[in-house]
Design goal:
It contains 17 helices and 12 strands. By secondary structure, it is of the alpha/beta class. The N terminus is likely disordered.
Length: about 525
């Protein structure tokens, strides 16, 4: 049997269905009409771990999202995942057409197709000379970043993470060079927690720096900088090298470790301190990503959060000088072959990948990036001023509705969150106390049920000290839709989003009334 794919069929069955060349070239695929549609939604759910495998009945992944547009559903869940937009789906279909425009013959060599995807990612996010390594998810990208850092480190490596509890549940394992799931994005069965071959045995140590205290209150940014600085200095004195993370935006809209502190620490120990910016939410301005690369930081980003692309499209962006250093360094760990295909890597680094030639390509990942690039292009189209105004209006509209809703509270610790495209709402139980995680998860699931339309998506539950929050978030498409109508003023431009928020909170209120009557 072949590897199990998201579609529920094996890789061998899908290969036979599509007529794929044994080395990854697509030939004579019978893709016409509805078959083209079927091919695309299957491929958009392939090349990822079980989180994006589709339920055969609902055709939804574990996030409750589809790989086809769902215009009748309300989505404010971009902190977690998105159902693909109509624009993104069209972009993915166009990219698929580059592989077989006539439905019968190969149009582009697959290597050239991936080169163009990566070039578009660099053009959208990066700077001239930067390189892009594609990854199935932000957690997979962390594994790649650690592998690259360890390859450049002649000493044992310490990985300093900022608030991993507000980035991804698998990040601590990935950051230590260990498998974070029982199946990789390429369908390889592994033992969660076990070492990745050639990586975890390099003596990697992990240091966590929190951005909240034990009660869930946000820490002073200066205190975070001080703790991270002390950790770096301590690890250097111990004779270890350091991979230091900057958290651009957490799941709840906070940041951790200032870029000023990161620049200082990297400059204080050239070659011994490497910096990785976790921009997986991609809620910073694109100019900030470019500045980070110019500063010599590697950047981990995804197109599947604010950019509005489908889940599981990430990238590690490398400054030109760092990419050249990696190209001249040792081969990458053999265990990356379970996570990364050869064509995920630029040609300049591909010979460092060694055994990754075993997995030639991940076309599902490429198609998801094609969809996400539409959202990134959208992000580039609105000004900082309009984005700030629209985001502020979004946050105020969400908070105004939340204030009238029983069962949630606007907690004072979240009131000063600088990221207005994410609004955390603290969930209460029937007695008015902080709800348990399970209670918030039940509410989250109820919002997604079709019994009482519309289906509503919000960000998954996150535990913050004693409380649990659900998150209502805007995506780039939300901002762009309002920005396109700003000629008539913000009030008029925001009407469509306001109506969608009304529908979301009306359903939320209905669910809350049902819960109170139980």
């Amino acid at each position: 049997m072949g590897r199990q794919l998201a579609s529920g069929c094996t890789s061998a069955q899908l290969t036979a269905m599509l007529g794929l060349h044994e080395k990854g070239l697509l030939r004579q695929a019978p893709v016409f009409g509805q078959e083209a549609h079927t091919f695309l939604w299957l491929m958009l759910a392939s090349g990822g771990d079980p989180r994006i495998w589709l339920d055969p009945v609902t055709r939804r992944n574990r996030y409750g999202m589809k790989t086809t547009p769902a215009p009748d559903e309300l989505s404010f869940a971009s902190t977690t995942a998105n159902t693909i937009s109509a624009q993104g789906y069209a972009a993915a279909a166009l990219a698929a057409g580059g592989l077989f425009p006539s439905g019968r013959a190969l149009h582009l060599p697959l290597s050239q197709w991936f080169d163009e995807i990566r070039a578009s990612v660099v053009n959208g996010l990066g700077v001239p000379g930067a390189e892009a390594v594609l990854a199935a998810s932000g957690t997979d990208a962390e594994i790649l970043a650690v592998a690259l850092a360890t390859g450049l480190a002649p000493r044992p490596l310490t990985n300093i993470l900022i608030a991993p509890e507000e980035t991804g549940s698998g990040v601590p394992l990935a950051a230590a060079g260990r498998h974070f799931s029982d199946c990789t994005a390429l369908g390889v069965p592994v033992a969660a927690g076990s070492p990745i071959e050639g990586l975890a045995l390099r003596g990697i140590e992990i240091v966590f720096v929190p951005i909240r205290d034990a009660s869930g209150r946000a820490r002073d940014p200066a205190a975070v900088d001080e703790e991270a600085t002390a950790a770096v200095e301590r690890e250097l004195r111990k004779g270890r090298d350091v991979l230091l993370h900057v958290l651009d935006t957490s799941k709840t809209g906070l940041a951790g470790l200032t870029r000023e502190a990161a620049r200082f620490l990297m400059a204080s120990a050239p070659g011994r301190v490497r910096v990785a910016v976790d921009a997986c939410q991609l809620r910073c301005r694109l100019t900030q990503v470019k500045r980070d690369l110019e500063d010599g930081f590697m950047v981990i980003a995804t197109g599947s959060k604010f950019a509005g692309g489908p889940p599981f499209c990430a990238v590690v962006l490398l400054p030109a000088a760092l990419a050249a250093e990696i190209a001249a360094g040792p081969p990458l760990p053999r265990g990356l072959a379970s996570y990364s295909a050869a064509l995920d890597w630029p040609a300049a680094l591909r010979d460092r990948s060694g055994d990754m030639a075993l997995s030639h390509s991940n076309s599902g990942l490429g198609l998801r990036w094609a969809a996400a690039l539409d959202g990134i292009e959208t992000m580039a189209g609105f000004s900082a001023e309009s984005e700030t105004a629209i985001a502020s209006r979004f946050a105020s509209e969400v908070r105004a509705r939340a204030q009238t809703l029983s069962g949630v509270v606007l907690h004072e610790d979240d009131a000063l969150c600088a990221c207005n495209t994410i609004v955390p709402l603290t969930v209460l139980d029937r007695n008015g106390a902080f709800a348990a995680l399970s209670g918030a998860q039940k509410l989250h699931a109820a919002l997604r049920e079709a019994e009482h339309a519309p289906i509503c998506h919000v960000g998954q539950a996150v535990r913050l000290g004693a409380r649990t929050v659900l998150r209502v978030a805007a995506s780039a498409y939300t901002v762009a839709g309002v920005a396109a109508c700003m000629g008539g003023g913000l009030d008029r431009a925001f009407r469509s989003v306001a109506c969608d928020l009304d529908s979301l909170f009306e359903k939320w209120s209905f669910i809350e009334r049902q819960r109170q009557s139980e």
